[in-house]
Amino acid sequence: MTTDNALVLFSGGQDSTTCLAWTLARFSRVETVGFDYGQRHRAEMDARVRVLAAIHTRFPDWAGRLGEDHTLSLDVLKQIGGTALTNAMTIEMGADGLPTTFVPGRNVMFLTAAAALGYRRGIADLVGGMCETDFSGYPDCRDKTIEATAAALTLALARRVTIHTPLMWIDKAATWSLAEELGGVALVDLIREETVTCYEGDRSHRHDWGTGCGACPACVLRAKGYAKYRAR
Ligand code: ZN
Protein backbone atom coordinates (compact mmCIF):
# COMPACT_ATOMS: atom_id res chain seq x y z
CA MET A 1 0.00 0.00 0.00
CA THR A 2 1.36 3.45 -0.91
CA THR A 3 0.36 6.91 0.17
CA ASP A 4 0.52 8.20 -3.35
CA ASN A 5 -2.76 6.84 -4.63
CA ALA A 6 -6.32 7.76 -3.82
CA LEU A 7 -9.88 6.67 -4.54
CA VAL A 8 -12.44 9.41 -5.22
CA LEU A 9 -16.15 8.91 -4.56
CA PHE A 10 -17.25 10.27 -7.90
CA SER A 11 -20.91 10.87 -8.74
CA GLY A 12 -20.55 13.12 -11.78
CA GLY A 13 -21.80 16.20 -9.93
CA GLN A 14 -20.16 19.56 -9.30
CA ASP A 15 -18.80 18.68 -5.86
CA SER A 16 -17.28 15.31 -6.68
CA THR A 17 -15.78 16.63 -9.93
CA THR A 18 -14.08 19.42 -7.94
CA CYS A 19 -12.87 16.76 -5.47
CA LEU A 20 -11.52 14.71 -8.37
CA ALA A 21 -9.51 17.73 -9.60
CA TRP A 22 -8.27 18.35 -6.01
CA THR A 23 -7.09 14.74 -5.82
CA LEU A 24 -5.46 14.78 -9.28
CA ALA A 25 -3.47 17.83 -8.13
CA ARG A 26 -2.15 15.92 -5.08
CA PHE A 27 -1.87 12.20 -5.78
CA SER A 28 0.05 10.55 -8.58
CA ARG A 29 -2.49 7.79 -9.18
CA VAL A 30 -6.22 8.36 -8.83
CA GLU A 31 -9.04 5.87 -9.18
CA THR A 32 -12.76 6.70 -9.10
CA VAL A 33 -15.81 4.89 -7.83
CA GLY A 34 -19.49 5.57 -8.49
CA PHE A 35 -22.51 3.99 -6.86
CA ASP A 36 -25.63 2.82 -8.59
CA TYR A 37 -28.27 2.78 -5.88
CA GLY A 38 -31.37 2.89 -8.02
CA GLN A 39 -31.38 6.64 -8.58
CA ARG A 40 -34.61 7.71 -10.28
CA HIS A 41 -32.69 9.16 -13.21
CA ARG A 42 -29.61 7.98 -15.10
CA ALA A 43 -28.28 11.52 -15.63
CA GLU A 44 -25.71 11.20 -12.83
CA MET A 45 -24.25 7.94 -14.08
CA ASP A 46 -24.09 9.37 -17.64
CA ALA A 47 -22.39 12.53 -16.35
CA ARG A 48 -19.61 10.46 -14.73
CA VAL A 49 -18.62 9.04 -18.13
CA ARG A 50 -18.73 12.48 -19.83
CA VAL A 51 -16.66 14.18 -17.10
CA LEU A 52 -13.95 11.48 -17.14
CA ALA A 53 -13.80 11.64 -20.96
CA ALA A 54 -13.54 15.44 -20.84
CA ILE A 55 -10.69 15.28 -18.29
CA HIS A 56 -8.85 12.85 -20.56
CA THR A 57 -9.10 15.18 -23.57
CA ARG A 58 -8.82 18.62 -21.92
CA PHE A 59 -6.36 17.95 -19.06
CA PRO A 60 -3.53 15.81 -20.46
CA ASP A 61 -1.38 16.26 -17.32
CA TRP A 62 -4.16 14.87 -15.14
CA ALA A 63 -5.19 12.19 -17.64
CA GLY A 64 -1.93 10.31 -17.03
CA ARG A 65 -2.80 10.01 -13.34
CA LEU A 66 -6.35 8.77 -13.86
CA GLY A 67 -6.60 5.07 -13.17
CA GLU A 68 -9.49 2.67 -13.21
CA ASP A 69 -13.10 3.82 -12.83
CA HIS A 70 -15.31 1.49 -10.80
CA THR A 71 -19.07 1.34 -10.45
CA LEU A 72 -20.65 -0.58 -7.61
CA SER A 73 -24.28 -1.45 -7.16
CA LEU A 74 -25.90 -0.65 -3.81
CA ASP A 75 -29.43 -1.78 -4.57
CA VAL A 76 -30.19 -2.07 -0.88
CA LEU A 77 -30.81 1.70 -0.73
CA LYS A 78 -33.51 1.43 -3.41
CA GLN A 79 -34.99 -1.61 -1.65
CA ILE A 80 -35.27 0.36 1.59
CA GLY A 81 -36.71 3.28 -0.40
CA GLY A 82 -38.77 6.06 1.12
CA THR A 83 -36.66 8.83 -0.40
CA ALA A 84 -37.30 11.25 -3.26
CA LEU A 85 -34.01 10.22 -4.89
CA THR A 86 -35.09 6.62 -5.44
CA ASN A 87 -38.91 6.83 -5.41
CA ALA A 88 -41.53 9.04 -7.04
CA MET A 89 -41.94 11.34 -4.04
CA THR A 90 -42.21 15.10 -3.74
CA ILE A 91 -39.06 16.90 -2.65
CA GLU A 92 -40.17 18.63 0.53
CA MET A 93 -39.40 18.78 4.23
CA GLY A 94 -40.19 15.45 5.87
CA ALA A 95 -41.64 14.79 9.32
CA ASP A 96 -38.12 14.04 10.59
CA GLY A 97 -37.08 17.63 9.85
CA LEU A 98 -34.94 16.54 6.90
CA PRO A 99 -35.69 16.94 3.18
CA THR A 100 -37.22 13.86 1.49
CA THR A 101 -33.99 13.71 -0.55
CA PHE A 102 -32.20 12.37 2.53
CA VAL A 103 -31.14 8.74 1.97
CA PRO A 104 -30.53 7.28 5.45
CA GLY A 105 -27.14 5.63 5.76
CA ARG A 106 -26.05 6.50 2.23
CA ASN A 107 -22.69 8.11 2.92
CA VAL A 108 -21.69 5.52 5.51
CA MET A 109 -22.51 2.75 3.01
CA PHE A 110 -20.67 4.55 0.22
CA LEU A 111 -17.59 5.02 2.41
CA THR A 112 -17.71 1.42 3.63
CA ALA A 113 -17.92 0.10 0.06
CA ALA A 114 -15.17 2.50 -1.06
CA ALA A 115 -12.90 1.48 1.83
CA ALA A 116 -13.44 -2.21 1.01
CA LEU A 117 -12.63 -1.56 -2.65
CA GLY A 118 -9.60 0.46 -1.54
CA TYR A 119 -8.49 -2.47 0.61
CA ARG A 120 -8.46 -4.69 -2.49
CA ARG A 121 -6.75 -2.02 -4.58
CA GLY A 122 -4.11 -1.07 -1.98
CA ILE A 123 -5.58 2.41 -1.50
CA ALA A 124 -5.97 3.91 1.98
CA ASP A 125 -6.88 7.49 1.01
CA LEU A 126 -10.52 8.12 0.11
CA VAL A 127 -11.81 11.48 -1.10
CA GLY A 128 -15.45 12.61 -0.85
CA GLY A 129 -17.41 15.80 -1.47
CA MET A 130 -19.25 15.84 1.86
CA CYS A 131 -19.82 19.36 3.06
CA GLU A 132 -21.14 20.73 6.31
CA THR A 133 -21.23 24.37 5.23
CA ASP A 134 -23.98 24.63 2.61
CA PHE A 135 -25.60 21.29 3.32
CA SER A 136 -29.25 20.38 3.48
CA GLY A 137 -29.01 19.23 7.08
CA TYR A 138 -27.94 15.70 6.15
CA PRO A 139 -26.39 14.28 9.32
CA ASP A 140 -24.11 11.96 7.32
CA CYS A 141 -22.38 14.97 5.71
CA ARG A 142 -21.12 16.26 9.06
CA ASP A 143 -17.41 16.28 9.78
CA LYS A 144 -17.95 14.30 12.98
CA THR A 145 -19.77 11.54 11.06
CA ILE A 146 -16.93 11.30 8.52
CA GLU A 147 -14.27 11.30 11.24
CA ALA A 148 -16.06 8.54 13.18
CA THR A 149 -16.58 6.51 9.97
CA ALA A 150 -12.86 6.71 9.17
CA ALA A 151 -12.04 5.54 12.71
CA ALA A 152 -14.53 2.65 12.47
CA LEU A 153 -13.25 1.56 9.05
CA THR A 154 -9.62 1.72 10.23
CA LEU A 155 -10.55 -0.66 13.05
CA ALA A 156 -12.77 -2.86 10.89
CA LEU A 157 -10.09 -3.34 8.22
CA ALA A 158 -7.13 -3.27 10.62
CA ARG A 159 -5.53 -0.90 8.15
CA ARG A 160 -5.40 2.90 7.96
CA VAL A 161 -8.36 4.51 6.22
CA THR A 162 -8.15 8.28 5.71
CA ILE A 163 -11.16 10.19 4.37
CA HIS A 164 -10.34 13.56 2.79
CA THR A 165 -13.22 16.04 2.49
CA PRO A 166 -11.81 19.13 0.76
CA LEU A 167 -15.24 20.83 0.57
CA MET A 168 -16.23 20.30 4.20
CA TRP A 169 -15.85 23.92 5.33
CA ILE A 170 -16.45 25.88 2.13
CA ASP A 171 -19.68 27.08 0.54
CA LYS A 172 -20.84 26.53 -3.05
CA ALA A 173 -19.32 29.81 -4.28
CA ALA A 174 -15.96 28.78 -2.82
CA THR A 175 -16.32 25.36 -4.50
CA TRP A 176 -16.49 27.14 -7.89
CA SER A 177 -13.45 29.25 -6.87
CA LEU A 178 -11.57 26.10 -5.85
CA ALA A 179 -12.29 24.57 -9.27
CA GLU A 180 -10.88 27.72 -10.91
CA GLU A 181 -7.74 27.57 -8.72
CA LEU A 182 -7.20 23.92 -9.60
CA GLY A 183 -7.96 23.87 -13.31
CA GLY A 184 -8.63 27.43 -14.44
CA VAL A 185 -11.59 28.52 -16.54
CA ALA A 186 -11.30 25.27 -18.50
CA LEU A 187 -12.29 23.28 -15.40
CA VAL A 188 -15.08 25.71 -14.48
CA ASP A 189 -16.44 25.32 -18.02
CA LEU A 190 -16.16 21.54 -17.87
CA ILE A 191 -18.13 21.52 -14.59
CA ARG A 192 -20.76 23.89 -15.98
CA GLU A 193 -21.23 21.89 -19.17
CA GLU A 194 -20.87 18.27 -18.12
CA THR A 195 -21.82 17.77 -14.46
CA VAL A 196 -25.34 17.10 -13.21
CA THR A 197 -26.44 18.29 -9.77
CA CYS A 198 -30.21 18.53 -10.41
CA TYR A 199 -32.38 16.20 -8.34
CA GLU A 200 -34.64 15.74 -11.39
CA GLY A 201 -31.68 14.86 -13.64
CA ASP A 202 -32.81 17.59 -16.04
CA ARG A 203 -30.45 18.21 -18.98
CA SER A 204 -32.85 20.15 -21.19
CA HIS A 205 -32.77 23.57 -19.51
CA ARG A 206 -29.54 25.57 -19.91
CA HIS A 207 -28.41 28.25 -17.44
CA ASP A 208 -25.13 30.13 -16.97
CA TRP A 209 -24.33 27.66 -14.13
CA GLY A 210 -25.07 24.56 -16.21
CA THR A 211 -28.11 22.44 -16.99
CA GLY A 212 -30.91 21.57 -14.61
CA CYS A 213 -34.58 22.14 -13.85
CA GLY A 214 -33.67 25.38 -12.05
CA ALA A 215 -36.29 24.81 -9.36
CA CYS A 216 -35.22 21.87 -7.17
CA PRO A 217 -33.16 22.61 -4.03
CA ALA A 218 -29.95 21.29 -5.65
CA CYS A 219 -30.38 23.60 -8.68
CA VAL A 220 -31.24 26.58 -6.45
CA LEU A 221 -28.11 26.00 -4.34
CA ARG A 222 -25.92 25.59 -7.43
CA ALA A 223 -27.35 28.74 -9.07
CA LYS A 224 -26.90 30.83 -5.92
CA GLY A 225 -23.35 29.63 -5.45
CA TYR A 226 -22.46 30.37 -9.06
CA ALA A 227 -23.95 33.89 -8.87
CA LYS A 228 -21.95 34.61 -5.69
CA TYR A 229 -18.77 33.23 -7.30
CA ARG A 230 -19.27 35.38 -10.43
CA ALA A 231 -19.91 38.49 -8.30
CA ARG A 232 -16.50 38.23 -6.61
ZN1 ZN B 1 -33.08 20.71 -10.52
Strand order of the largest sheet: 3-2-1-4-5
Number of domains: 1
Second CATH tier, the architecture:
3-Layer(aba) Sandwich
Q: Termini, distance in Å?
A: 42 Å
CATH class: Alpha Beta
Tell me roughly what share of residues is in helical segments.
Answer: 40-55%
Question: How would you describe what is shown here?
Answer:
The protein has 232 residues and is α/β, with parallel strands linked by helices. The protein has one domain (2-231): Rossmann fold (3-Layer(aba) Sandwich), CATH 3.40.50. Helix content is 45%, strand content 16%. The protein has eight helices and seven strands. It has helices at residues 14-24, 43-58, 60-63, 76-80, 106-121, 143-157, 172-194, 217-230, and strands spanning 2-9, 29-36, 66-73, 123-127, 162-164, 206-207, 210-211. The strands form two sheets. Strands 3-2-1-4-5 form a five-stranded parallel beta sheet, with helices on both faces. It has a two-stranded antiparallel ribbon with strand order 6-7. A hairpin with a 2-residue loop joins strand 6 (206-207) and strand 7 (210-211). It is globular and about 45 Å long. The N and C termini lie far apart (42 Å). The mean pLDDT is 91. The site of zinc ion (ZN) has 9 residues, from helix 8.
Give the structure's gist in a few sentences.
The protein is of the alpha/beta class.
Topology readout:
Blueprint: E1 2-9, H1 14-24, E2 29-36, H2 43-58, H3 60-63, E3 66-73, H4 76-80, H5 106-121, E4 123-127, H6 143-157, E5 162-164, H7 172-194, E6 206-207, E7 210-211, H8 217-230
Parallel strand pairs: 1-2, 1-4, 2-3, 4-5
Antiparallel strand pairs: 6-7
Helix pairs in contact: 1-7, 2-7, 5-6, 7-8
The structure holds zinc ion (ZN).
Zinc ion binds at residues 198-200, 202, 212-213, 216, 218-219.
